[in-house]
Specification:
Layout lengths: L12 E4 L2 E4 L10 H5 L2 E3 L2 E4 L2 E2 L2 H14 L8 H14 L5 E9 L13 E8 L7 H6 L1 E5 L21 H12 L4 E5 L5 E4 L3 E6 L2 E5 L8 H12 L4 E4 L11 E6 L3 E8 L2 E2 L4 H14 L8
Parallel strand pairs: 8-9, 8-15, 12-13
Antiparallel strand pairs: 1-2, 1-7, 3-6, 4-5, 4-6, 6-7, 9-10, 11-12, 11-14, 14-15, 15-16
Helix pairs in contact: 2-3
Length: about 300
């Protein structure tokens, strides 16, 4: 296995508070509020052929998430969009992952930090398949998580906030140690919710079934897949899905910016055969994210 290149020690540039800085100089103080109290929101984006897929939609969600976390990012949506494009260009990237993040700084420490400065950074790097490519082609193995997605009355559950991913990291580690690629999380009611970093879909009798995102992130990739399925004339049912139903589905796949469209062959004791609908939507998605070439090209 090739040695991992640590993220703090790389060549390139990171957009940091309004300007590009050398990668290794994009640092923050150890007493930053975002580190201690998770007062941070972020986005995960992918660029294909030099264009970031649904960039403005991601940026709008970032800004809205910050407001949910009770702070205002000091840049407009248009300025953040431009900064994301500037970052991938500065790093000579074409197909890559893009990570904007906004957080409270170190001016004030404690639960209350209304006077802390709000920072924004944007990094971009090469990142291929989220899962092992050979494994992905035949479907990944998924186990069940112990932790559950929280009641929206206990946390801003629909926001892409840093603190909500703590249990995802724990469950992803537990799954990988057991030989699985990911873990399926239920919500606080015991309903099927999502995986640790991706939404989930099932197929039954030609129809697509997916949980209602009432206590977890309604992913941009999730909405894209629903639109693509409807364009194909597929029935899409957003509904409550119970764990005892999982054996009744024929296909299963997960979706997200990082995961893209990834078939699942095994979920706990249930087995699925990645089939025609999964393959069709995977191909449709990959075609959709690629920049359209003009007739002159």
């Amino acid at each position: 296995m090739a040695a991992l290149v640590p993220f703090h020690d790389r060549d390139g540039f990171i957009w940091f508070d309004g300007k590009l800085v050398p990668w290794r100089e994009a640092t923050l103080h150890v007493l930053s509020h975002g580190l201690h109290y998770a007062s941070a929101v972020f986005e995960g984006e992918r660029a294909y052929g030099g264009e970031i897929f649904k960039l403005t939609e991601h940026t709008e969600r970032l800004v809205a998430g910050a407001r949910t976390m009770d702070f205002e990012i000091p840049y407009s949506v248009a300025e953040i969009d431009a900064a994301c494009r500037e970052t991938i260009k500065a790093n000579n990237l074409v197909d890559c992952y893009v990570r904007p993040i906004a957080w409270r700084g170190s001016e004030q420490m404690g639960v209350s930090a209304q006077n802390a400065k709000i920072h924004l950074a944007i990094a971009a790097w090469d990142w291929g398949s989220y899962f092992d490519p050979a494994e992905r082609m035949r479907g990944i193995r998924v186990t069940f998580a112990h932790y559950r997605r929280p009641d929206p009355r206990t946390a801003p559950a629909k926001t892409k906030a840093a603190g909500l991913y703590m249990i995802c990291t724990l469950e992803k580690h537990r799954a990988e140690r057991a030989g699985y690629a990911d873990a399926l999380m239920l919500d606080w009611r015991g309903h099927v919710a999502e995986c640790t970093g991706a939404n989930i879909f099932f197929v039954k009798d030609g129809a697509l079934h997916t949980p209602v995102p009432d206590c977890f992130l309604d992913g941009i990739t999730r909405r894209t897949i629903i639109d693509l399925a409807k364009k194909r004339g597929m029935e899409v049912r957003e509904r409550t899905i119970l764990p005892e139903e999982l054996g009744s589905f024929s296909e299963c796949f997960i979706v997200g910016t990082a995961a893209e469209v990834t078939p699942v062959r095994e979920l706990g004791e249930h087995n699925y055969q990645p089939g025609r609908i999964t393959e069709t939507l995977l191909n449709d998605y990959m075609e959709t994210v690629q920049p359209k070439k003009s007739a002159a090209e």
